[in-house]
């Protein structure tokens, strides 16, 4: 069955459908993008091609700057997209247009003059250290337990501890393999965006929580029957059916335990934000935090330097001659 993100509307002409498949092939083979990145690009291009087909576009040569700009404006108005989402769509259109020019499908880049929406950079939401302690300790055994009950709370505690202790993205948690866990060194080998590899320490509480999960919970999720089917594909974190944990389930785990801890509007990436902010507030070097987060550009990491206002005032008072 063709996934939804690869399904174009029926009225899309064959030339545009072929363009769509060739572009996905380019992203997968020549660019070597990860599946999640390919899907993101494909969704944006699908929306564009469906829009253009509705307006009578039959060939790539029919793309025009006005149509591309109208598409972005329509997305923003109909879907009420934030500037960040509109910017992503524009970036995708630019990549597609450059590729069409490079492969001779168009004689001139139709997105050359396409402007990105003005985007304010929002400061990340973070939890305080006390709130983080409440969140990571929220998983606990149910009141009634029997020998047949799989202790999923152990898995959930390990997930929360790792995301905070190592600053992992949701995608990095879900794709973490058993071979990436270096227990003796208490480190994780993480494959991040752009297939960049980094080593990140776990910290003692996270390492202990992960070790308990691997010894007492994961083996019960992988029965002999499930192991034979190889459904788990060596992923560290599994669902109760023995399959790799999904992104939706990970969001639910974080949300539900946050509610138990009395916290609202908590999402997985907030744990990563808190990790970086707390390190910097404790005096960590910005370059070290950049390396731990796997940021290619230190400008991405600098957004976390805003948070510790009290720390900034204290440093100013201690070091400035007129403090």
Task: Provide structural commentary.
The chain has 323 residues and is mainly alpha-helical. Helices cover 54% and strands 4% of the residues. It has two domains: 4-102, DNA polymerase, domain 1, CATH 1.10.150; 129-317, hpI Integrase, Chain A. The protein has a three-stranded antiparallel beta sheet, with no helix packed on it. The termini are far apart. The mean pLDDT is 86.
User: Under the CATH scheme, which class of the largest domain?
Assistant: Mainly Alpha
Relative strand content = under 5%
Tell me the strand order in the biggest sheet.
Answer: 1-2-3
Overall residue-averaged pLDDT value: 86
Sheet with most strands: 3 strands, antiparallel
Order of helices and strands: HHHHHHHEEEHHHHHHHH
Helix content: 40-55%
| CATH topology value of the largest domain | hpI Integrase, Chain A
Spatial shape: globular
| Domain count | 2
By helix and strand content, what is the structural category?
Answer: mainly alpha
Number of helices: 15
CATH superfamily heading of the largest domain: Intergrase catalytic core
Total E-strand runs: 3
What is the CATH architecture term of the largest domain? Orthogonal Bundle
What is the C-alpha radius of gyration, as a whole number of Å? 23 Å
What separation lies between the terminal Cα atoms? 66 Å
Low-confidence segments, ≥5 residues, pLDDT <50?
Answer: none
């Amino acid at each position: 069955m063709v996934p939804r993100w690869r399904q174009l509307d029926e009225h899309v002409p064959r030339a545009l459908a072929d363009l769509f498949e060739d572009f996905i092939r380019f992203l997968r083979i020549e660019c070597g993008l990860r599946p999640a990145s390919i899907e993101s690009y494909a969704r944006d291009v699908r929306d564009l091609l469906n829009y253009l087909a509705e307006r009578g576009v039959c060939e790539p040569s029919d793309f025009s700057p006005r149509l591309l700009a109208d598409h972005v404006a329509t997305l923003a108005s109909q879907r009420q997209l934030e500037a960040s989402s509109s910017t992503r769509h524009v970036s995708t259109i630019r990549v597609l247009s450059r590729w069409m020019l490079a492969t001779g499908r168009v004689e001139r880049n139709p997105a050359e003059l396409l402007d990105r929406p003005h985007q304010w950079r929002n400061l990340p939401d973070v939890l305080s250290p006390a709130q983080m302690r409440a969140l990571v300790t929220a998983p606990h055994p149910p009141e009634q337990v029997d020998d047949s009950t799989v202790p999923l709370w152990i898995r959930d505690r390990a997930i929360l501890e790792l995301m905070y202790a190592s600053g992992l993205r949701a995608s990095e948690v879900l794709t973490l393999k058993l071979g990436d866990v270096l227990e003796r060194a208490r480190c994780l080998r993480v494959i991040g965006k752009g297939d960049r590899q980094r080593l990140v320490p776990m910290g003692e509480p996270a390492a202990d929580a992960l070790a308990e999960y691997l010894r007492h919970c994961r083996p019960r999720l992988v029965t002999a029957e499930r192991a034979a089917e190889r459904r788990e594909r060596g992923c560290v974190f599994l669902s109760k059916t023995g399959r790799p944990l999904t992104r939706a389930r990970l969001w639910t785990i974080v949300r539900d335990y946050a509610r138990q801890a009395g916290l609202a509007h908590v999402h997985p990436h907030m744990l990563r934000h808190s990790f970086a902010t707390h390190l910097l507030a404790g005096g960590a070097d910005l370059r070290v935090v950049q390396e731990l987060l796997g940021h290619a550009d230190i400008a991405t990491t600098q957004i976390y330097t805003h948070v510790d206002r009290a720390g900034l005032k204290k440093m100013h008072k201690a070091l400035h001659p007129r403090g």
